[in-house]
């Protein structure tokens, strides 16, 4: 009789241990793996880390790291051929890689705007007449000043390096 009682306690102990192991497995196993084990397919990676953003490796346009800071800083070397139109006052560039419009206002000032049209967000239809940008998508014009409808970014020019703070 005593052996039977001991045997029952042993069986209870084993049942409890197996249940704990199942719970631990379900807690720690990758969710898609567990769902797949129950016949529920899911296409998802088991990785827990966030995807890393791509880094712009362009040598003439630098994005200095601002980790932990939501502000973005961009440096442009105006010697780059893509910005040759900015050598002349009144020259302008729609730099689509960074979604910005740049215009040379004076010897020491280049203004920078978001290239999204305030009307419906088109980015590819710009022209400049020396004072206003016109979006030919629907024909609206916007002054090249920081008090108008175009989103203006802080920009400073030192030599041939233009630094933009977004
Ligand atoms: S999207 Fe530019 S004028 Fe309409």
Describe the structure in your own words.
This protein is an alpha+beta fold. The chain folds into 2 domains: 2-37; 61-165, Rieske Iron-sulfur Protein. The protein has helices spanning 2-28, 31-37; strands at residues 61-62, 73-77, 92-95, 100-106, 109-114, 126-128, 132-135, 140-143, 152-158, 161-165. The strands form 2 sheets. The chain has a 7-stranded antiparallel sheet with strand order 1-2-10-9-5-4-3, with no helix packed on it. The protein has a 3-stranded antiparallel sheet with strand order 6-7-8, with no helix packed on it. The radius of gyration is 30 Å and the shape is globular. FE2/S2 (inorganic) cluster (FES) binds at residues 117, 119-120, 122, 135, 137-138, 140. FE2/S2 (inorganic) cluster is lined by residues 117, 119-120, 122, 135, 137-138, 140.
Termini separation = 81 Å
Oligomeric state as shown: single chain
Low-confidence stretches: 22-59
Mean pLDDT: 76
Assess the beta-strand content as a share of residues. Answer: 25-35%
> Helix share of residues?
10-25%
Task: Give the SSE string.
Answer: HHEEEEEEEEEE
Give the overall shape: globular
Main sheet attributes: strand count, strand direction, barrel closure: 7 strands, antiparallel
Named at the architecture level, the CATH assignment of the largest domain is 3-layer Sandwich
Under CATH, the topology of the largest domain is which? Rieske Iron-sulfur Protein
Count of domains? 2
The named CATH superfamily of the largest domain: Rieske [2Fe-2S] iron-sulphur domain
Instruction: Compute the number of helices.
Output: 2
**Order of adjacent strands in the largest pleated sheet:** 1-2-10-9-5-4-3
Radius of gyration: 30 Å
- What is the number of E strands? 10
Secondary structure category: alpha+beta
The CATH class designation of the largest domain is Mainly Beta
Provide the list of bound ligands, each named once: FE2/S2 (inorganic) cluster
């Amino acid at each position: 009789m005593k052996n039977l009682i001991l045997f029952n306690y042993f069986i209870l102990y084993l049942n409890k241990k197996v249940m704990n192991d199942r719970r631990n497995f379900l807690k720690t196993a990758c969710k898609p793996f567990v769902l797949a084990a129950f016949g529920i397919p899911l296409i998802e990676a088991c990785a827990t880390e966030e995807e890393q953003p791509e880094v712009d490796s362009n040598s003439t346009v630098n994005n200095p790291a601002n980790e932990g800071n939501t502000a973005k800083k961009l440096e442009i070397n105006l010697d780059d051929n893509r910005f040759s139109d900015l050598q002349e006052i009144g020259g302008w560039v729609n730099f689509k890689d960074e979604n910005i419009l740049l215009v040379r206002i004076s010897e020491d000032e280049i203004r920078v705007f978001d290239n999204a049209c305030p009307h419906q967000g088109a980015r590819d239809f710009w022209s400049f007449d020396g004072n206003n940008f016109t979006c030919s998508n629907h024909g609206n014009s916007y002054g090249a000043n920081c008090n108008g409808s175009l989103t203006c970014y802080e920009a400073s020019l030192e030599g041939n390096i233009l630094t933009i703070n977004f």
